[in-house]
Amino acid sequence: MRRFLYISPFFPPMTRVGALRPLKFACRLPEHGWAPIVLSDLRDHEDCDSRLVDRLPESTIVIRDYSRHAARARPGSKPPLEASEPSEPGKPSWFARHAEDLNPLGAHALGLPHALHAAHAALRAHPSCEAIMVNADPYAAMLVGARLAHATGLPLIQDLRDPWSCCDLRRRLRPAPQRWLVDRVERWAVEAARVVILNTETARRDYQRHYADLAGSGDRFACIRNHADPALRVDVEFPAFDRFTILFMGNFRRFVEGTTIVDALARVRAAGVGPERVQLVVTGSLPAELRARAEAAGVADMLVGHRFVPYLEVASLMDRADLLLSFSHPTAQRIPAKVFDYLLSDRPLLVIADNPELRELVERAGGASVHGLQQVDAIATTILAELERGRGRRVERADVGVDSATASRELAGILSAIT
User: Fold this and answer.
1) pLDDT digits 0-9 by tens, 162-199
2) How many CA atoms lie within 13 A of 326 on its CB side?
3) Pairing of β 2-7 and β 129-135
């Protein structure tokens, strides 16, 4: 088995989305002759699920020393939400809302010396490593990878997942000094890399244009989208929903405010369909602003909360829904990670996005309706049409390569090419 050092501060047992991509790679890469040595973090009160670690193959070696406190951390567990109400977090402070804009390197920036020392120690302990790969964010990890690549001469892969300097959502919100810092730091990290992986073809093209002055820029940037693995499933007997259920597995939050779906539900109610027939079940948070909008529109009773659903259980809950809802950022550079889980299900899908790449993907897959972020009437029409088609409808979907086996084969090809 060929080895590489995988610098991934977020990694199981963490449940955050940034820990799931490397989990899926670790599970599938051995099929192509590669296995990671993972250098990861773990901090107190991090939401965790030990079952995720149980899914790792024996070939995966995890070194939990990215931060000085990792080995001693006592991770917390996410409390279940009340079944009748979506989570309603308090309004965050201005600083909390803009923390990433003001400190683009994040909390991990202060631990860079320790992380670099731990990475060197990992390579000494595992000298067979042929490459270095960074899972970012946290974007500070890109600096660790770049320094390590310069010191060792090993080829480097920077897997950004979401865009950083070129992010058309956050770039305009950063003050000029932070924008300058991100540009300088990312350029240095990109120059050190043999390959930079983005999450969408749109982001890859944006990066290719931004770094067109770099030698070999045409071969430097690749796209491996997020992906889903049907093997990462635990069958759970969720109670059946008692009415037509639209399921949103995620959080309404900054950049994903959700106002369009609330306004569409108001149109549905105006058409004579009330909460006794249709509900929107939310497994994540519902900000106070959106709750107030739903109250004003007279549809608050159509929004129903659900307890937090661990990743391994999401497929079982999707089986209970009648319509799966994806709500996107107002950008074409990102595709919500949950879309890939949805596309491996056989339930109808409602996608709300202004994203040509996402539209093309789900239309190739089939069984989906796509409407823009402002197309309230069209969204309401789709909900009413699905209601007329009846509950429990199943759809046929084409294989469009959104599974982890496909993505891992692409990553293994990159690893083999650069080594």
Assistant:
1) 999 999 998 988 899 999 999 999 999 999 999 999 99
2) 29
3) parallel
3-state secondary structure 88-139: CCCCCCHHHHHHHHHCCCCHHHHHHHHHHHHHHHHHHHCCCEEEEEEECCCC
* DSSP string for residues in 185-254: HHHHHHHT-SEEEESSHHHHHHHHHHTTTSTTHHHHEEE----B-TTS-----PPPPSSEEEEE-S--BT
SS3 320: coil
* Type of residue found at 293: R
Q: Terminal CA-to-CA distance of the chain, rounded, Å?
A: 14
Token couple for 309: 């659903």
Structure tokens at 36: 């990671």
| pLDDT number for residue 84 | 43
Predicted confidence at residue 106, as pLDDT, reads: 72
pLDDT at position 226, please? 96
List Cβ neighbours of 333 (8 Å cut-off, separation of 6 or more). 162, 163, 166, 167, 168, 169, 200, 202, 203, 206
Which helix or strand (DSSP H or E) is residue 367 part of? Answer: none
Respond yes or no on whether the N-terminal peptide bond of residue 13 is cis (omega within 30° of 0): yes
DSSP for residue 41: -
Alpha carbon 71 to its chain centroid, in Å, reads: 25
Q: Helices 176-191 & 140-152, crossing angle to 10 degrees?
A: 30
157 and 194 Cβ atoms separated by less than 8 Å = yes
pLDDT given at position 104: 72
The residues near 288 (Cβ < 8 Å, ≥ 6 apart) are 88, 89, 90, 91
Distances (CA, A) of 251 to 139, 282, 306: 22, 8, 12
Chain centroid offset of residue 391 CA: 29
Peptide bond into 92 cis (omega under 30): no
Overall size of the chain counted in residues: 419
- Give the residues of the chain that fall short of pLDDT 70: 77-102
Strand pairing category for 34-40 and 2-7: parallel
**CB distance 389 to 347 below 8 Å:** no
Count CB neighbours of 83 within 10 A: 11
Distance CA 135, CA 21 (A): 9
